[in-house]
Amino acid sequence: VLIASQMEPAFARRVYPCFDEPAMKATFNIRIVHDPSYVALSNMPAIDVSEMKDENGSLWTVTTFNTSLKMSTYLTAFVVCDFDYVTRTERGNKIRIWARKEAIGNGYLDYALSITGPIFSFLEDVLNISYPLPKTDLVALPEFGAGGMENWGLVTIQESSLMYIPSDKFTSRKAMIALIVSHELGHQACEQTKDILRYFFFLFKWFGNLVTMNWWNDLWLNEGLASYFEYLGAAFVDPKLSLDKIFCDHVVQPVLREDSETVRSLSESEDKIKGSFSITSLFDSITYNKGASITWMLSGFLTEKLFIRALTSYLKEFSFSNANQDDLWTHIQTIIDAQDKVQLPASVKQIMDSWTCQNGFPVLTLNITTGTIRQEQFLNKNNRRSTDPNNNTWIIPISWMKNGSSQPLMWLDKSSKVFPEMQVLESEYDWILLNVNLSGYYRVNYDQLNLKRLAHLLENDPKAIPAVSRFQLIDDVFVLSKFGYVQIETALELTKYLAREDELFIWNMVLLNLVPKKLESTLKNYEVYPLLKKYLLKRMLPIYHYYAGFIHKNIDALEDDYFAQAYLEKLFTTACWLGLQDCLDLSSELYAKWMDNPEYKIPFFIRGTVCCYGVALGSAKEWNFAWEMYTHTDSTEDDKDILLSAMSCAKESWLLYRYLQYGLSDTLFSSNCTSTVILNVVAKDIGHRMAWEFVTENW
């Protein structure tokens, strides 16, 4: 039995009577009466543990905690558990990580403990603010819907986000833990890969606890700043992580996709946010990822040094109280006014309000013949409703590059403007690139002339364009084609060079744009499948063979390759789906190796592909082995999910039908697997009709 509280945003009122609003801060005296075989934890250290008897003569333990610092109700917390812990002290701050006894005994929390102290110190040093509490407890909860919560002094986090199995050498798991720790500690000041980032996120949040938003409409000040810092912290803990690539891939690109359909701005007016339902709905990717992207852009045009200086002054002035976004803009303005290196075209408030108070974001269109850039809100032109003209304009920082050399930052502060420096007349090979390394929160569209030159450049010298800019250029042009700004042929022109592309995160984005999500169904993709097979496969061969070499000979060499661990599965699945014989043979070979020796571990980052195609290319023997491994008590949840999916890859219809029958059985499966089995089978070409008939027969 375990009890853990989650008060954010408006649930403290369910636990004790209070004015449950972030601006009403108080100190709290907490005392918990509990079963003697359990331990009670709260925000502050325990100062007294005594015993009492109830009216039936049963003995209870009473744990009394020290008076808390002044804080909001949503940050009060308690846990009652029979967990064990690992501990260390960092600069006088006692850190304990609590988890199930067997997880602690197996050393699964040691990695999280080893990075938590350094992240606290990193934050204190960067922000020049001391952590105000004498202790920090982090509790790994086996199930936790919120993922993580930055309760001051008592951070609660989903167990899977904190555990690192010492025998598992690979870094994507470590990167995940580092991110989650740093996010939550960062508050303490404002899908596996992403988990580590989320760990940082929760550690970073003590500055959100120190300075809380006045009201939930400025929630992004807490979450967006912490999301930005989680990436700085992850790069600090593991310098091998490429910060700009991971940030653009995990944060900016996904939220740009979502924000084009969004109807709300980052900061809403207070009167719009009424009632706890709409408060809860603010905990979305606009708040977290758009907030982080806007912060990334702000830090970029201010310089990180000035941004951190302003943030420190803001945190010091509003410690133990509340603020809104205008308070932050005022502090930044003061820092800007006191120096003359960074010049802005308008006040910080005017610039930033254009990004936080309007929904959506702009698309810039550059004409290199005239040097004109115009801006408009990025909308779906295929959807008539969304193309009503509005006069939204943003004050836009434009980082840019001409023929490979970086140019001074420009600003676009009206709907269109001529930049003579961007006129390209002389050579037929001159080119311009805007928004270098995705430093600004917007998309870019170019005239045909510049696009042609960029496509030519990619084919001849792809590295002349920085990796993050290649990623952004291709993603922008595919999304622009999808939304009716350019033709799909224009987008495809920029993919001709791909045989020379060696960055997996770029390949992942290309596959995201080109390959249907439901890979299995060639039926639904009958028109595009043969074309993709012809066009894509030959361009994939160099990068496929590069990584297949490691899998054949030296898998350990990929130990520090974060993107290989995150995205190799997608590359290999696509290669097998497109019928690359080497990929199919490799899958059969590794699956057979596992059948011969169940102790053998298929490299985890292609395990899904190998199991699926191992079953698909095999017969009943291969399927039965997958079933045997699935029912094996030692299988982890991850393994079970992979096998549950792989068993639906069978090519013999009787095996699929038997699998569907198994799915109905309460003795073979837990009841929540039935729908998963049906959904897995229905996604396959041969299972599509069979699953439907099975559902109607067994309704």
Automatic annotation (TrEMBL):
An example Gene Ontology biological process: peptide catabolic process
Domain Aminopeptidase N-like N-terminal: 2-75
GO terms, molecular function: metalloaminopeptidase activity; peptide binding; zinc ion binding
Coiled coil: none
Keywords of this entry: Aminopeptidase, Glycoprotein, Hydrolase, Membrane, Metal-binding, Metalloprotease, Protease, Signal-anchor, Transmembrane, Transmembrane helix, Zinc
Record's GO cellular component terms: cytoplasm; extracellular space; membrane
Residue numbers marked as site, Transition state stabilizer: 288
Gene3D superfamilies: 1.25.50.20, 2.60.40.1910, Neutral Protease Domain 2, tricorn interacting facor f3 domain
Active site positions: 184
Membrane-topology annotation of the record: Single-pass type II membrane protein
UniProt similarity note: Belongs to the peptidase M1 family.
UniProt protein name: Aminopeptidase Q
Taxonomic lineage: Eukaryota, Metazoa, Chordata, Craniata, Vertebrata
